[in-house]
Design a protein that fits this description.
The complex is a heterodimer of chains A (556) and B (195).
Chain A (H helix, E strand, L loop, with lengths): L1 H26 L6 H14 L9 H24 L16 H12 L9 H4 L2 H30 L8 H26 L10 E4 L5 E4 L4 H10 L20 H26 L2 H26 L28 H11 L18 H9 L8 H21 L4 E2 L2 E2 L2 H27 L1 H4 L6 H16 L14 H30 L16 H16 L3 H16 L2
Antiparallel strand pairs in A: 1-2, 3-4
Chain B lengths: L1 H4 L1 H34 L3 H4 L3 E3 L5 E4 L36 H14 L22 E3 H15 L3 H9 L5 E2 L8 E3 H12 L1
Antiparallel strand pairs in B: 1-2, 3-5, 4-5
The chains are: A mainly alpha (556), B mainly alpha (195).
Chain lengths: 556, 195
């Protein structure tokens, strides 16, 4: 078990360094680069004059929001018309309106919460031109916004051009990596076909219909772009999405690769690699703790089997054998540390305490986090850390040579409060009313956790679920759809506003009294503000759900 | 803020988005999928779902996907929360600490009928995440071997010899002591011996 954990974390960590360098160059090529000139000329020719020149942070945000609205409109159209569109060999019918809204919101916001089951509901066209397309452009939106934040923190008042950043991220960062991964997956046995379902006559003479399709293309980008929306309902537990031990390990590494590299990209664009190293270390520590905890907790046998004539072995409910022992727990930790949300085991059937690990990951939502947005989230905790330290020594706090004042702090606190407000408010509402209480599969504390998990996943733009929840109802579709939209755009807009406001200030000279943000000590401060401010808010619901279930199971 | 939020500017942004959006669809959905599809032609077996065919050429299943077995002469796969429906896969989603999980397990144990004092391997009483797990552990093969041997008029040793022969579905999983066995491949191998 331990070698699996180390292998899965160390390989992407090592690869992230060169990849971060390449990503920084691809998104920020500099004036002398031929690649930079050629691509911006080409993109300008396609997109028109809005793509020429740099934008300030407000203009950048407006472009981002407008493009994201267009993404929403396009995917809504595709989903609403799927029964009349091509590439539908199995004749998938129309989708219900609230499900279309939820799915569009989910994929536009890089969440990929799925209230439908891919093989049952979606045509090949909807999967490829609707959902998979969004897996590219929503991830590219995240990378672009991180580049803008980094430029602003680097002290620049013009933060780049959103469209150019988006296209560069989609075409030159995500596309080549996805191509490579898809080829590896096909070699590992993942199907890639436009034929309809295969119909088999089994050895015992029954008929078995096997849904398939262009799976490899979608699985590659869903793993790389912290999307997580699988081709099939049960995601990467499905043998067609994840056929072997080897595909599993490659998919698992792909979850954290770009989020890790994004830290180095941030360091290079801001020109503060030491700060990036501190951020990377803090995230790595949190990830190791999470992964090890999940490993250990999930190695306990299922409590329900106690006393039955069954061999004592780690909990195997909801897990596939071919990935090896511990692979489910490890994936669960990684997929919720980043905002990926794909799964290779059923989170609903994790041991009660193990279920706390993915929940905690999504409550914090900064352990590498979503592509791009992970560091944007962490930036808020950094600002809070800087502020608290400044208060303790009685100085005006500074970050990257600019004073952090009341205006910025107001925005930072607002950004900080959105996440718990959406989770706790939504959970309270749905746990208290039939809208949520009537949709749970498991009774008691576990049912409460199902509701809590759903809102947590939506607010963290994660997309994994306790899938026992009957979540394809109008109430769930609308509530989580709205939560995903708010939880995506507010935490991008506010940090960019803070960074923009900082960039417009006069730089203050660094003195011996300046709080340095590139030291291990400041790493501890970030860690503290993440744990004490980010996670402790959720202690009461952790007690009501997973802990209560664990204790009551132990008492039987 | 005024200029960024002016109606004229927003219209301009919509126009730019309208022009870029088709480009991204073309490249990220069209060209990307096309390229992978073409590459997939080099591995036609995997690309079409690793199908297993009978000697006559009809599809009998996929190497990757479990199918239902109920007859005593076949090895049985792990339980499936979706009755091995490969057009609607899924897990039980039951809490492993719940009474429902215990009830479900007790029902499975009635079917498996372990002898007094015998313990059933965990994988044989738990449903996989997809409901389509094609493998069982070697321990689960050993557990079922006496039943299969009896039904086929073979000795347990003869059955285990087939299990342990190469190409009959036994695979090793790295970092894990015990091998796994692909149920469909093993059952096909058993049928080949009978014929």
């Amino acid at each position: 078990m331990a070698p699996l954990l180390l292998l899965t974390l160390i390989v992407p960590a090592l690869l992230s360094w060169p990849l971060g360098k390449v990503m920084a160059h691809l998104i920020e090529p500099g004036g002398t680069s031929r690649y930079g000139r050629r691509t911006s000329e080409l993109f300008c020719r396609t997109g028109g004059d809005a793509l020429t020149g740099e934008q300030d942070w407000k203009q950048y945000l407006v472009s981002m929001l407008v493009f994201n609205m267009m993404m929403f409109a396009f995917v809504t159209t595709v989903l609403a018309l799927q029964q009349s569109l091509p590439l539908n060999p199995d004749g998938k019918g129309p989708l219900e309106a609230s499900l279309i809204f939820n799915t569009a919101a989910s994929f536009v916001t890089n969440t990929n919460l799925q209230h439908y089951s891919g093989e049952a509901a979606m045509s090949y066209f909807s999967q490829l031109a609707g959902l998979m397309w969004l897996q590219f452009v929503s991830a590219a939106t995240g990378i672009a916004c991180l580049a803008a934040l980094a430029r602003a923190l680097g002290g620049r008042s013009s933060v780049g051009n959103f469209y150019i950043d988006l296209l560069r991220a989609a075409f030159f960062i995500l596309l080549p990596l996805a191509l490579l991964l898809a080829l590896i997956l096909i070699a590992g046995g993942v199907p890639m076909t436009f034929e309809g379902a295969a119909v088999a006559r089994t050895l015992e003479g029954a008929t078995q219909t096997m849904a398939r399709g262009p799976v490899a293309a979608m699985v590659a980008i869903k793993q790389l772009g912290t999307n997580g929306g699988g081709y099939f309902g049960p995601n990467s537990t499905h043998p067609f999405e994840n056929p072997s031990f080897y595909t599993n390990i490659v998919e698992c590494m792909s979850i954290v690769l770009i989020p890790m590299a994004a830290v180095w990209m941030f360091g290079r664009i801001t020109g503060r690699m030491r700060d990036a190293s501190v951020i990377f270390s803090v995230m790595m520590i949190l990830l190791l703790v999470k992964a090890a905890a999940a490993f250990w907790l999930e190695s306990a046998p299922a409590a329900a089997l106690w006393g039955l004539p069954v061999e004592a072995a780690p909990n195997l409910e909801g897990k596939e054998l071919r990935f090896g022992a511990g692979a489910g727990a490890l994936w669960a930790a990684l997929t919720t540390a980043t905002s990926n949300g794909s799964v290779n085991c059923m989170h609903d059937s994790l041991n009660p305490l193990t279920g706390l690990v993915p929940l905690a990951g999504m409550w914090i939502n900064v352990v590498f986090g979503g592509v791009g947005v992970g560091i944007i989230n962490l930036f808020i905790f950094i600002i809070i850390g800087v502020f608290i330290c400044g208060m303790m020594v009685g100085r005006t706090p500074e970050y990257f040579g600019r004073k952090v004042e009341t205006g910025e702090m107001r925005l930072a606190l607002l950004a900080l409060l959105v996440h718990p407000l959406l989770i706790l408010g939504g959970t309270a509402l749905f746990a208290a009313t039939p809208a949520g209480a009537a949709t749970v599969l498991n009774s008691g504390a576990h049912g409460f956790t199902e509701i809590l998990y759903e809102f947590t996943s939506a607010a963290a733009n994660n997309g994994s679920g306790f899938e026992g929840l009957g979540d394809n109802t109008v109430a769930w579709n609308i509530a989580t759809g709205v939560v995903m939209l708010l939880a995506r755009y507010i935490p991008i807009i506010l940090p960019l506003a803070i960074a923009g406001s900082l960039a417009s200030k006069k730089p203050v000279p660094e003195t011996s009294g300046t709080l340095r943000t590139d030291t291990p000590l400041f790493g501890l401060i970030i860690l503290g503000s993440v744990i004490f401010i980010g996670a402790l808010l959720f202690l009461p619901v952790a007690v009501l759900g997973p802990l209560a279930e664990h204790l009551s199971a132990a008492s039987h | 803020m005024k200029t960024a939020l002016s109606g004229k500017n927003i219209l301009r942004q919509f126009a730019a988005s309208l022009r870029i959006l088709p480009l991204t669809v073309l490249v990220c959905s069209g060209l990307y999928t096309g390229a992978i599809y073409l590459a997939g032609r080099l591995a036609p077996d995997a690309s079409s779902g690793s199908l297993v065919r009978s000697a006559e050429g009809g599809v009998i299943g996929s190497r990757l996907v479990a199918q239902q077995f109920t007859r005593p002469e076949y090895f049985w796969p792990r339980p499936s929360a979706v009755s091995w429906n490969a057009a609607g896969a899924g897990g039980s989603n039951l809490s492993p600490a719940s009474a429902a999980m215990r009830d479900k397990t007790e029902k499975v144990l009635v079917t498996l009928a372990p002898e007094q004092g015998e313990k059933v391997p965990t994988d044989l009483v738990t449903a996989s995440g997809s409901g389509l797990d094609p493998h069982i552990s070697l321990a689960s093969v050993r557990f079922q071997a006496p039943r299969v041997a009896r039904a086929r008029g073979l000795s347990v040793d003869e059955v285990m010899h087939i299990v342990n022969s190469p190409e009959n579905g036994k695979i090793a999983v790295p970092f894990q002591g015990e091998p796994l066995v692909n149920v469909l491949q093993l059952n096909c191998a058993l049928d080949r011996v009978r014929k």
